[in-house]
Every structure is written in C-alpha cells, then in structure tokens.
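Reopening this ticket.

The earlier resolution said the output was attached, but the attachment link was broken on my side. Pasting everything inline this time so it's all in one place.
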Amino acid sequence: MAAPAMEGLAVTALRSVMLRVRQAAERSGRRSDQVRVVAVSKTKPVSLIRQVYDAGHRCFGENYVQEINEKAPQLPEDIEWHFIGHLQSNKVKPLLAAVPNLAMVEGVDNEKIANHLDRVVSGIRRKPLKVLVQVNTSGEASKSGVEPSGCVELAKHVKLGCPNLEFSGLMTIGMPDYSSTPENFRVIILHLFGHHGKMNSCYLVTQHLK
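Inline output:
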C-alpha cells in the first residue's frame, strides 16, 4: 500500500477509535477526557506519525528504544511519548537522554528496573517519571510482568522506595486469542480491578488501568 494511502487510513482509524471511546465513556457515565488513547506507532514511519499528530493526537507509544530514540527528535516536542513493554537496564539512560518528553514507562515488572530508572531519573535531574507496573495476567512465559500476587508489593516499592518515579497504575497484555472476546476481556479487567482495589486500600492511589 502506498504511503499516502496508509497515512489517510491511519487518520480515519484514529477518528473511528476516538468516536468509539466517546460513546463507551457516555454509556459508562464517564467523561471521554478521562480515557487516554495511546497510538502505538512501532515500525511506523515518522511521516505517518506526523499525519496523526496533525489530526490532533498527541499521545504515542513505542516498544523499541532505538526506534523511539530515532523518531522523537524528528517530531514536535509536545508529543507525549510512552515506552511500552519490558525495558532493559542498559537501555534506560539512552532512552531518557534521547527522549526528554518521555511521559511514561509502561512496563516496570521488577524492583531492579524500578531502582535503575529511579537512579537515572535522579542523575539527569528530570521531573519524576510516571510508570505503570506490568502484571502478567495470562501466565505466559513469553510475556513480561510481575505475577499478580506480587503486584501490590512491587507497587509499594515504586511508591515508597523510588522518589523519582510516580506510580501511576497497572498495565497488562492479554493473550490474543483469549482477550479478543468481550467476555474474556472483562475477566481480565475485573482481575486488574481487584488488585487496583487492594492498592487503594493501602493508600497506593492508582490513576491508570491499561
């Protein structure tokens, strides 16, 4: 497919998704601005990201450090970048140095990476970095994430032991064939909400479930 056609499809898809988000928010009695849509742009060209940006979207997600480090300097500084998934310790400093407008890391799955992020953020003297704790709800060995039974303790560690990180909630990546059905997806979300409730009871107020 030619690049201009692909870019046009991306903007059309974005508008369709945002409409569905507004409709779902209305049905659940929430404001649509309480829901953040992250456009995952991994492997997509800078020209396509700019097209979506020009359509009004500001929140983009990447999975690979080298890719986000190459793209971010070519795009407007008001983009809110999210790094999604497992982050290796040796990639933390290059990521934070290259992407000053990194808004969130979605994938803290152990104390070691939390501690390393905390030290690097402190060392470069940037504002506290928002992070989500990744929970492995599918039980798949191929997926990163803390076991559900350990997510509250990891969240406590981030909240109380990492002053340069801002614990912002939980995220999970479901099993594709399982979580693609509405009923199974509800099971996963209810599972996360259970841990969300435990955290709030421990005064670990969470902002995001993803």
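Reporter confirms the inline version is readable. Residues 85-209 form a domain with the TIM Barrel fold (CATH 3.20.20.10). The first strand starts at residue 39 and ends at 40.
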